[in-house]
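Risk register update: the risk of archive-format incompatibility is retired. Evidence:
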Amino acid sequence: QPQVVESGGGLVQPGGSLRLSCVASGFTLADYAVRWFRQAPGREREGVSCVSISGRREGTTSSVDSEKDRFTGSRDNAKNTVYLDINSLNPEDTAVYYCAAGRTYGNYYSCPPVFDFYGQGTQVTVSS
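Archived output:
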């Protein structure tokens, strides 16, 4: 059964950092782009990072696309894993964080609009 499973959430103090993991099983994650989402109580789900297949934006050698400055996605294809590093955490970052993997059919630099596999999420709570 192909799936992705998130881990690494927990209770973090404001100003701290966290690394979330998204581990795939039953398929090769290197063939998929991965988007990290989050959803806080009472709020809509929002995307926080896209980890493209190449790990680079087209035309640059910069790191993977990050929709917010404090969020950095990366991948380790040897481990079938994608990561999300979050820095300078604040209480507004409290949410369930999800990853989703989707095929891009030849586009190596961005995430697709729909995804094939969604994880169950990992809770991140930022509080002193």
